[in-house]
Amino acid sequence: MSFQLLRGSAPLLVSMPHTGTHMPADLHARYVPRALALEDTDWHLPRLYDFVAALGASVLTPTVSRYVIDLNRPPDDAPMYPGASNTELCPTRFFTGDPLYREGAAPDTAERERRRAAYWQPYHDALGAELDAIRARHGVALLWDAHSIRAEIPWLFEGRLPDLNIGTAAGASADARVTHAVAQACAQAPGVSSVVNGRFKGGYITRHYGAPLRGIHAVQLEMCQCLYMREAPPFDWDEAGAQQIRPVLQAMVGAALGAVQSLEVLP
Fold it and tell me: How would you classify the pairing of strands 194-196 and 141-149?
């Protein structure tokens, strides 16, 4: 199985599309040796978000690494951020801009389609079906797309990111009251910086599935990894940092869920 879905009882689905760490053995020889360390993984997010089980959330996570397939990119590989550096459906570069593959070993069209069918499609089939089931049960659904990234990556963005980057596709993927509730929860956290629809406005998952007029509200959170882990190898967990930021995340998700539940339930 290329993903794991744990079904909950609340109108909440948490997707973590970049936490996978499996690299199929038959692909190893294609990559430069550095790639096998999987440095651009969204490390430790299931552990950081362990509180969502108590909220009754469904949780969807992949097994395969984002270096094999990026589950948060569109199937036609259209750039998410035109004019900026982008990673592809089958990434060919590290976040530093360096090549992921040995010379001549990057996936061709046929290989990209094979990976899309084998890994991308099952994840999205599960995501779409679970959202529909939640919406059918509750009349509304909240999709929380959880991500993390190093605070400074010059190839992708200038300077240092705010700690917490909320994305709602420039307001298109969630009701404004949901976005406001999440932003307010951030604002009440001392010493934590945040932005709404800044550099990261939401990837394919947020943009594709967020449909407020149908009762489905999608929020992406891209957070700086230095808040809860070491950003350099071996990318280890920082318990003290995690204890400080986890309550903020819990307040944000709880605020979003409360806002969604307070909206008019659709037939």
Answer: unpaired
Which residue, 40, 41, 46, is CA-closest to 6? Answer: 46
How many whole angstroms separate alpha carbon 150 and alpha carbon 232? Answer: 9
Domains and CATH numbers, the chain: 3-262 (3.40.630.40)
Q: What is the pLDDT of residue 209?
A: 98
CA 91 vs. chain centroid, Å, equals 16
How far from the centroid of its chain's Cα atoms is residue 196's Cα?
15
Q: Going edge to edge, which strands form the sheet with 58-62?
A: 3-6, 58-62, 12-15, 141-149, 216-224, 164-167, 194-196
Model pTM score: 0.95
Q: Is the dihedral of CA 186, 171, 137, 12 positive or negative?
A: negative
**3-class DSSP state for residue 209?**
helix
Average pLDDT score over residue span 26-39: 97
Sign of CA dihedral 236, 239, 244, 249: positive
pLDDT in the model for residue 205: 98
Of 119, 120, 123, 162, give the one whose Cα is nearest residue 13: 123
- Model pLDDT for residues 49-108, shown as the tens digit of each residue: 999 999 999 999 999 999 999 999 999 977 766 666 677 899 999 999 999 999 999 999
Look up tokens 């991308």; give the residue: 120
Please name which of 188, 185, 191 lies closest in space to residue 221, comparing C-alpha atoms.
Answer: 185
